[in-house]
Amino acid sequence: MSDIVNNRAKHRYELAVDGHIAATYYEIADGVITFVHTEVPPELGGKGIGSKLIKGALDQVRAERLKVIAQCPFVKAFIGKNPAYQDLLQ
After folding, report:
1. Confidence class of residue 1 from pLDDT cuts 50, 70 and 90?
2. What are phi and psi of 11, to 5 degrees?
3. Ramachandran angles phi, psi of 58, nearest 5°
4. What does CATH list as the number for 5-88?
């Protein structure tokens, strides 16, 4: 399994698994990243791929010292279940 890649051209973090790409899309402005939508292909469903993707994306966001707006319900739920990431919320 590869690492999470920030595809800046497509405004998304990506995780490639078995020929499929899970992605979480974002908008970024003034030091704040807004996660708007997460897509996990049906072939990858139920394997924790979405959570791995969001965790990796949030780790990169933290390293870049950005604040987060979790507009995407999946990202919002992940942060809700993982208190270590709540400090990133704006």
Report:
1. very low
2. 55, 55
3. -65, -35
4. 3.40.630.30
